[in-house]
Amino acid sequence: MRKINFVQAIDLHVHTKYSGDSKITPKELVDQLHAHPFIKGVAITDHDTIRGYEEVSKLAKTYEDILIIPGIEVSVENGHLIILGVEECPKYPSSIESVIDFAKERDGIVVIPHPYRELGIGDISEDIEADAIEVPNPHATQEENKKAENLARKINLPCVAGSDAHSLQEMWRAYTKVDAKQEIEGILKAIKDGRVKVATTK
Ligand SMILES: [Zn+2]
Ligand SMILES: [Zn+2]
């Protein structure tokens, strides 16, 4: 079996101030990412907007060491769904199926965030075509994360993680090691293929 080198460390779930419920500014985010010793990638996953991603990616252009992945934490009728690799919002209100189609038509991938926490889609996850499950989520309880882990095993989906940070102190608490080069397409493919490993920091 090929040995896997997890060369990228990426926080796949961060909110900027454009989420409304987060205090993190795009400038702070870029500075923190540039300063971090090994986490060099982040997915901007604001609630139902791409504005934070647009601003962060513009600011990040001056740095060669960091990668910004576009994402949206989409509000669907039953809770939240994260799409990665997509630079536009779906129409609202959106059903889970329409968001998944929307993401796939644009070569994006679909992550089910915090399935058993508040605003998680729960057992519905078993009946949809997602690409990965978020576990652990630092805001979920141990029990909720355990249930999410069992779900991922049951439906055979890779686990990915992000901090779900809404403040600077919360950033990087959970992240994903990815076996890919530092470019978006390869990273999304590695996630789909399960060449990922989740990690947490203290
Ligand atoms: Zn959420
Ligand atoms: Zn979130």
- Order of secondary-structure elements: EHEHEEHEEHEEHE
Radius of gyration over all CA atoms, rounded: 15 Å
Give the total of beta strands: 9
Distance between the termini: 32 Å
Ligands (ions, cofactors included)? zinc ion
Number of helices: 5
Helix content: 25-40%
Give structural notes.
- It is a single chain.
- This protein has 202 residues and is α/β, with parallel strands linked by helices.
- The chain has five helices and nine strands.
- The protein has helices at 26-35, 51-60, 96-105, 142-154, 184-192; strands spanning 8-14, 41-47, 67-76, 79-84, 109-112, 132-134, 159-160, 174-178, 196-200.
- It has a nine-stranded mixed sheet, sandwiched between helices.
- Strand 3 (67-76) and strand 4 (79-84) form a beta hairpin.
- Helix 1 packs across helix 2.
- The chain is globular, with a radius of gyration of 15 Å.
- It starts with 7 loop residues before the first strand and ends with a strand.
- One zinc ion (ZN) is lined by residues 73, 80, 113-114, 119.
Give the gist of this structure:
The protein has 202 residues and is an alpha/beta fold. It contains five helices and nine strands, in the order E-H-E-H-E-E-H-E-E-H-E-E-H-E.
Break the fold down into its secondary structure elements and pairings.
Elements: E1 8-14, H1 26-35, E2 41-47, H2 51-60, E3 67-76, E4 79-84, H3 96-105, E5 109-112, E6 132-134, H4 142-154, E7 159-160, E8 174-178, H5 184-192, E9 196-200
Parallel strand pairs: 1-2, 2-3, 5-6, 6-7
Antiparallel strand pairs: 1-8, 3-4, 4-5, 8-9
Helix pairs in contact: 1-2
Bound molecules: zinc ion (ZN) (2 copies).
One zinc ion binds next to loops.
